[in-house]
Specification:
Elements (H helix, E strand, L loop, with lengths): L8 E3 H4 E9 L2 E8 L5 H4 L4 E3 L1 E2 L2 E7 L5 E6 L2 E2 L11 H5 L11 H8 L12 E8 L2 E9 L3 H10 L2 H5 L16 E9 L9 E13 L35 E10 L8 H14 L4 E6 L4 H15 L3 H4 L22 H11 L3 H13 L4 H4 L4 H9 L1 H24 L1 H4 L4 H29 L48
Parallel strand pairs: 2-6, 13-14
Antiparallel strand pairs: 1-4, 2-3, 5-8, 6-7, 9-10, 10-11, 11-12, 12-13
Helix pairs in contact: 8-11, 8-16, 11-14, 14-16
């Protein structure tokens, strides 16, 4: 009777264990073991597995080439009654793992004990080596059209739904795989001669979108500068890599949990950014559907990078600008030509660039002035002649930010009456300023040349599970009132 009432349901997040395994005396040993953050794409929205007691699903990975090996153990298994049967774990996991993952444990152990791993190198080519104290990190890169890179992605792509909210797989049958570039982050260690020196820490995928650039000359002014070569045969050979101007978009970005919190996310992001910053075909660097943690990492590192540039530090609020009631916001609050020139030089997407500029310009305004809306601070500012100019600068900064917020949310705001529109902009501005203050405190605390941070993931597909999908939200992200009309439930984007 006791068995009839036993709990046969397991939490899939707790049941799944991911281990990084290395050869050891007498076999293998796990050097890191951790649980996934999400398992609903695999086991359903409830993240439950039925039919087992004491269930443990151990997904072992060789530390260097990430060869997977699956081990499933349990103390009891539910006996099928009618149409009620235990979850078929192998059938559920097969779409997410390569066939080698389901080989016997002895095969996996024998494979990673192979002495040839002593000479093993990551797939692709070495892009950058980073020395931090006594630690050495390497970033390798390769095209997804490369079979070795493709095999690696097949092995590790289950990490995307495990750690990225709403993340989905790349279609590895896509004929345009050459548009995908994969970056791998490794730590390189000094080890025994029979072992690999490489420890896998994370990876990222970047996709090249065609970036249309208007012609700078009229068609009649263009001339062919070389003779046409009509000596070709069909079919034409596939290009080895894209040769068109592109917007390079970070699609997936994963740092494994054991390596988060030590600045590894920032090291990896900066290395990827540096590559595309110097890539002549990349016109703009973007991120697809970033979560809140990646947003923070990106903001802080972009700010730190831009602050190394004299032209960025020279940006300022033009206090001679004179806004007029019921007139458009003046265009001369900040030098728009200088802004756009710098943005194009650094290849940062417009919205991201202007957010970082706003953050930077806010640091030039004293905290006492920023708090001047409080009655006590208002009186102090009025008495201090030196702060009077800063007060105007602050008002102009607010006006400039509101202009961007209005432009970004125009379709939603024009549905509101004037009073509500002003109120929503004020609320959004307060949320933006509070968020900037939080990020600036983090930047000051860390104070490294390139800021450290976790950077868990940036999802490139899917809507995610919840409404917010792990994104940063301001107090004004959603209109108040559950029973409000549809127009009042529209999200307000920063």
């Amino acid at each position: 009777m006791a068995e009839e009432h036993a709990d046969w349901s397991s939490n899939s997040n707790d049941a799944v264990h991911i281990s990084l395994v290395t050869p050891a005396e007498g076999g293998t040993k796990a050097i890191h073991t951790f649980n996934p953050k999400f398992t609903y794409p695999i086991f359903g929205d409830e993240e439950r597995i039925f039919g087992y007691q004491g269930l443990k699903i151990n997904l072992r990975y060789n530390v260097c080439d990430m060869r997977p090996g699956l081990q499933i153990s349990y103390t009891k298994k539910f006996k099928t009654v009618g149409e009620t049967s235990p979850t078929d774990l192998k059938a559920v996991l097969e779409p997410f793992l390569p066939k080698t993952a389901f080989e016997k444990s002895a095969v996996f152990d024998a494979a990673i004990l192979d002495a040839s791993y002593a000479d093993w190198k990551p797939p692709g080519e070495l892009w950058k080596t980073i020395q931090s104290g006594d630690q050495t990190y390497e970033i390798w890169k390769g095209s997804l059209a490369d079979l070795v890179v493709k095999q690696m992605v097949k092995r590790i792509q289950i990490l995307v739904p495990f750690f990225i909210e709403g993340g989905t797989f790349i279609d590895l049958q896509d004929p345009a795989l050459d548009r995908w570039t994969v970056f791998f982050l490794y730590q390189k260690k000094i080890v025994e001669a029979s072992k690999s020196a490489y420890l896998f820490m994370g990876y990222s995928t970047i996709y090249r979108y065609f970036y249309y650039q208007p012609l700078t000359t009229t068609p009649s002014e263009q001339r062919i500068s070389h003779p046409a070569n009509l000596d070709f045969s069909l079919p034409l050979p596939a290009p080895t890599q894209p040769t068109f101007s592109s917007r390079s978009r970070i699609s997936q970005f994963v740092i494994l949990p054991p390596f988060q919190g030590g600045g590894n996310g920032s090291r990896f992001y900066n290395a990827i950014f540096d590559y595309y910053l110097h890539d002549p075909l990349t016109i703009e660097i973007t991120v697809e559907d970033p979560n809140e943690q990646f947003d923070d990492l990106r903001d802080l590192n972009d700010l730190t990078l831009l602050r190394t540039l004299p032209e960025f530090n020279a940006l300022h609020i033009n206090t001679s600008s004179a806004p007029r009631p019921k007139s458009p916001v003046p265009r001369d609050i900040v030098d728009s030509i200088a802004l756009e020139t710098l943005r194009r030089k650094m290849k940062i997407a417009p919205r991201q660039f202007y957010r970082v500029v706003e953050m930077h310009l806010l640091t030039k305004i004293p905290t006492t002035v920023r708090q001047s809306l409080l009655l006590e601070q208002e009186r102090k500012v009025e008495k201090d002649a030196g702060l009077a100019g800063k007060k105007k600068e602050y008002r102009l900064w607010q006006l400039w930010v509101k202009k961007r917020l209005y432009k970004h949310n125009k379709d939603m705001l024009i549905q509101l009456d004037r009073v509500e529109r002003i109120e929503k902009l004020e609320q959004a501005l307060g949320g933006v300023e509070a968020d900037y203050a939080r990020l600036l405190r983090a930047a000051e605390t860390r104070g490294n040349p390139r800021v450290e941070g976790n950077g868990e993931g940036a999802s490139g597909s899917g809507e995610g599970r919840g409404e917010k999908n792990g994104k940063r939200s301001s107090p004004d992200d959603e209109m108040e009132g559950a029973e409000a009309p549809a127009v009042k439930k529209v999200k307000f984007a920063k």
